[in-house]
């Protein structure tokens, strides 16, 4: 029995049939089913029948994908691939059946041979984590890695990132960096061993976007469930709105800034953007760790939250209020105390679209009188990242929450620009 043989494996009353694949752990057999999925089967007490030998040349197929060397071409732009982990750079752990992040940037190049010939590549690994483990410390390391790549002359940067917190990291880079080249985040909703994986198309479209003229922080993911185009979302206006769909990411309040046609490789934009080379590079990675995000809901224990907040020494608090930006009337004095103690308190809305306006109802007017700052239509998560950055870098972070720093806030109630 060798890798490449077609086998039937019976264990614990379950029968699986397919091609035997190499396994990284001797305790498990890996079988590729006819539908394209891989399964891990514990060897102990497994009954294996070899149905046909050498039906699949595993070693040859592996060598073709793992020895990919992309020669430098003076006629091609240079794109830096920076890996932080996530599903786009992941595989299945057959001990647990879970997806784990364990590939570096060079592995992604081998796994996505479609990237060859599109650019000269530089690879760098900043972290190797699932995105729920992302921290502000890693944001700082990522910003510094991007700085190194830009100073080395790269024409564009692609950041491979887990999708769960991609919007937060994209927002952080938007505030930390002024960039003369595109910085494009991409990821994958489904791991590479699944037939429905979106990793190849997302990676290819991200590289094409990194070669384009929009020198902003972008998120590049499937525009629909079909494999026809990837949407390009501004890093401060994007939100993951579905747990598992391939088109989970949406620009809130408008259509995406642009898109990449997968077949033609054409990159188009709908609105004005910061063009390549127009912005001088700058970096400011300081962040306040003393900023929190509080979502108000009916029935929450106001006294318990009040005691908690009074016990913190916060630089800032983002409140995710209801509707136009409201909280329970009895909670307003607590927010006033925080403002009086020097905490910047800013109001966002938990509605999926629209902007805060605390001049319509008495509650809103009382919030304004308490010193709470309106954040307009800034997304709550983006507002937290923005306030973390503003508290550490600006003399008047409260005023900054009322104006746009990186496309996160519109000044008027018009379709997003």
Question: Overview of this structure, please?
Answer:
The protein has 417 residues and is an alpha/beta fold. It folds into three domains: 5-52, SH3 type barrels, CATH 2.30.30; 78-283, Rossmann fold; 291-402, Rossmann fold. Helices cover 24% and strands 26% of the residues. The chain is built from ten helices and 23 strands. The chain has helices at residues 58-66, 105-111, 136-151, 166-176, 199-210, 302-310, 332-340, 362-369, 380-393, 397-400; strands spanning 6-11, 14-21, 28-33, 38-42, 47-52, 78-83, 90-93, 98-101, 120-125, 156-160, 177-178, 183-186, 217-222, 229-234, 238-240, 249-251, 258-261, 267-269, 282-283, 291-295, 316-321, 344-349, 373-374. An eight-stranded mixed β-sheet has the order 9-6-10-12-13-14-17-18, sandwiched between helices. The protein has a five-stranded antiparallel β-sheet with strand order 4-3-2-1-5, with no helix packed on it. Helix 8 (362-369) links the parallel strand 22 (344-349) and strand 23. Helix 4 runs parallel beside helix 9. The radius of gyration is 24 Å and the shape is globular. Residues 79-270 form the L-asparaginase N-terminal domain. Belongs to the asparaginase 1 family. GatD subfamily. Pfam families: Asparaginase (PF00710), Asparaginase_C (PF17763), GatD_N (PF18195). It comes from Halogeometricum rufum. InterPro entries: AsnA_fam (IPR006033), Asp/glu_Ase-like_sf (IPR036152), Asparaginase/glutaminase-like (IPR006034), Asparaginase/glutaminase_AS1 (IPR020827), Asparaginase/glutaminase_AS2 (IPR027475), Asparaginase_C (IPR040919), GatD (IPR011878), GatD_N (IPR040918).
């Amino acid at each position: 029995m060798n890798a490449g043989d077609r086998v039937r494996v019976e264990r614990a009353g379950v029968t699986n049939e397919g091609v035997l694949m190499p396994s990284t752990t001797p305790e498990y057999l890996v079988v590729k089913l006819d539908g394209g999925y891989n399964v891990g089967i514990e060897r102990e007490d497994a009954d294996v029948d070899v149905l046909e030998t050498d039906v699949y040349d595993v070693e040859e197929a592996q060598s073709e994908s793992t020895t990919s060397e992309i020669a430098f071409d003076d006629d091609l732009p240079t794109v830096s691939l920076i890996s932080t982990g996530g599903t786009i750079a992941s595989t299945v752990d057959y001990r647990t059946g879970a997806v784990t992040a364990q590939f570096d940037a060079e592995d992604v190049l081998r796994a996505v041979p479609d990237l060859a010939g599109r650019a000269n590549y530089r690879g760098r690994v900043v972290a190797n984590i699932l995105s729920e483990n992302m921290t502000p410390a890693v944001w700082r390391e990522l910003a510094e890695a991007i700085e190194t790549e830009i100073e080395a002359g790269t024409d564009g940067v692609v950041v491979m990132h887990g999708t769960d917190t991609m919007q937060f990291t994209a927002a952080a880079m938007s505030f930390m960096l002024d960039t003369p080249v595109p910085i494009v985040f991409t990821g994958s909703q489904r791991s590479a061993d699944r037939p429905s994986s979106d990793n190849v198309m997302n990676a290819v479209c991200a590289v094409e976007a990194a070669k384009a003229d929009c020198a902003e922080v972008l998120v590049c993911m499937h525009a629909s469930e079909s494999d026809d185009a990837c949407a390009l979302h501004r890093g401060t206006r994007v939100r993951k709105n579905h747990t598992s769909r391939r088109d989970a990411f949406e620009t809130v309040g408008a259509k995406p800034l642009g898109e990449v046609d997968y077949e033609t490789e054409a990159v188009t934009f709908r609105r004005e953007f910061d063009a390549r080379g127009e912005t001088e590079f700058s970096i400011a990675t300081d962040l306040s760790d003393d900023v929190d995000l509080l979502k108000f809901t009916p029935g929450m224990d106001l006294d318990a939250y009040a005691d908690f907040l009074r016990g913190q020494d916060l630089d800032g608090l983002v409140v995710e209020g209801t509707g136009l930006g409201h909280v329970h009337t009895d909670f307003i004095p607590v927010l006033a105390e925080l403002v009086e103690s020097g905490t910047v308190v800013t109001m966002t809305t938990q509605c999926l679209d629209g902007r805060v306006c605390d001049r319509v109802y008495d509650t809103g007017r009382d919030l304004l009188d308490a010193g709470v700052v309106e954040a307009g239509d800034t997304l709550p998560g983006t507002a937290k990242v923005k306030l973390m950055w503003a508290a550490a870098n600006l003399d008047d972070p409260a005023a900054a929450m009322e104006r746009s720093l990186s496309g996160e806030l519109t000044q008027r109630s018009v379709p997003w620009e």
